[in-house]
Design a protein that fits this description.
The chain is α/β, with parallel strands linked by helices. Helices cover about 40% and strands about 15% of the residues. It has two domains: about 140 residues, Alpha-Beta Complex (Aspartate Aminotransferase, domain 1), CATH 3.90.1150.10; about 260 residues, Aspartate Aminotransferase, domain 2 (3-Layer(aba) Sandwich), CATH 3.40.640.10. Helix 2 packs antiparallel against helix 10, helix 11 packs parallel to helix 14 and helix 12 packs across helix 14.
């Protein structure tokens, strides 16, 4: 535990496992009571999206039932209620990330839009021909394609940090990639395809010694690890609400205030302006400069309820419980003949990606579905990772704090059935 009392990657709080009460927590999630093909749902696709607790569903419903109005513009009662709920979520996000100011929190549609915002607004104004952007070999497509587009437009070069056979970044190679032409490092905190937890804080420090800003893709980290953006000293941090028990279509971009102040708007429209004439537009102050048009108000309010719910359980307790699940799941799957886990980093979170000899991942996923077990099969929007490990696809079981050891045992039993089918 760090001095601020926040759980960080690689730490396991054994005391946090005591009295976790997963069965009680499961009662909060209506979808976990669903039956699939006549069998209890075993939901192990949390890296794609999490299930939603009843309190989040109820909070969104309450907004539409009794608070529905546009924000910031109205002077009437409902608008005031909606605005207060919307802006209180911004403050909750600030606390969740330990950002210094509310104005550093930008509401987006998700991690993807947050990264695109930085690529367009920060990247286009700073990247020139001959410059370089550094990413890693384990990135989600959302942290590859925007930089490719920018590099193609500007005549810049995309450089890639390689990974070893365990799925860990080669940090010596990373240091060699950084140079006077590097304009940004954009790297994931937790790999969605491998589960690797990257040593993001020292990586940021290495880049900063050269004056290079760093964007962190926190989509997979936010549900599993407590994050302190001031301690990390990252320049940008993006995450999505739907992976964190919140609604789809809502996300967060954190940016240091001085950087956000210097960046031009990403989109134009209502609410991101202070004054408009046909001759000139004066842009609004942060954070509204980057929030054009009517936002996903219900989504923001639902995200606030999700963060409150997760914080009530406690991310240190969640991280410890999930680490125990991951260790147990790794043990079970490693004992299955012909199964190979893809991604065996020493520091991992929540993801078990694997292949079965002679059986396509889609067939694995289809047969498990008939057992009521939901996993993901495919390239997980990380095709370069698949190429690096010499596979076309993997089956991926991804964990959340409402999963159980019994569900992992059901997964292992289901995989034995898969093998029997193809025997």
């Amino acid at each position: 535990m760090n001095p601020a009392g926040r759980q960080v990657a690689g730490e396991v709080c054994n005391d946090c496992l005591v009295g976790f009460g997963v069965e009680r927590i499961r009662q909060d999630f209506p979808a976990l009571q669903v039956r699939v093909h006549g069998k209890p749902l075993v939901y192990l696709d949390n890296a794609a999206t999490s299930q939603k607790p009843q309190v989040v569903i109820d909070r969104i419903t309450r907004y539409y039932l009794s608070e529905n109005s546009n924000i910031h513009r109205g002077v009437h009662f409902l608008s005031d209620l909606a605005t207060q709920a919307y802006e209180s979520t911004r403050d909750r996000v600030r606390q969740f990330l330990n950002a210094a100011h509310d104005r550093e929190i930008i509401f987006t549609r998700g991690t993807t839009e947050g990264i695109n915002l930085v690529a367009h607004s920060f990247g286009r104004s700073r990247v020139r021909a001959g410059d370089e952007i550094v990413i890693s070999a384990m990135e989600h497509h959302s942290n590859i394609v925007p930089w490719q587009i920018l590099c193609e437009e500007k005549g810049a070069t995309l450089r890639v940090i390689p990974v070893n056979d365990a799925g860990e970044l080669l940090l010596e190679e990373y240091e060699r990639l950084l140079c006077d032409r590097t304009r940004l490092v954009a790297v994931t905190y937790v790999s969605n395809a491998l589960g690797t937890v990257n040593p993001i804080k020292p990586m940021i420090a290495t880049a900063h010694r050269r004056g290079i800003p760093v964007l962190v893709d926190g989509a997979q980290a936010a549900p599993h690890l407590a994050v302190d953006v001031q301690e990390l000293d990252c320049d940008f941090y993006a995450f999505s609400g739907h992976k964190l028990c919140g609604p789809t279509g809502i996300g967060i971009l954190y940016g240091k205030a001085d950087l956000l102040e210097s960046m031009p708007p990403y989109q134009g429209g209502g609410d991101m302006i202070s004054a408009v004439t046909f001759e000139k537009t004066i842009y609004n102050s942060l954070p509204y400069k980057f929030e054009a048009g009517t936002p996903h108000i219900a989504g923001v309010i639902g995200l606030g309820a999700a963060l409150e719910y997760v914080q009530r359980i406690g991310l240190p307790r969640i991280a410890a419980y999930e680490a125990d699940l991951l260790a147990y799941g790794t043990e079970l799957l490693s004992a299955i003949p012909g199964l190979r886990i893809i991604g065996t980093a020493r520091e991992k979170a929540s993801v078990l990606s694997f292949v079965l000899d002679g059986i396509h991942a889609h067939d694995v996923g289809t047969i498990l579905d008939h057992e009521g077990i939901a996993i993901r099969a495919g390239h997980h929007c990380a095709m370069p990772v698949m190429k690096r490990f010499g596979v076309s696809a993997t089956a991926r079981a991804s964990l959340a704090f409402y999963n159980t050891r019994e569900e992992l045992e059901a997964l292992a039993k289901g995989l034995h059935k898969v093998i029997e089918v193809f025997a």
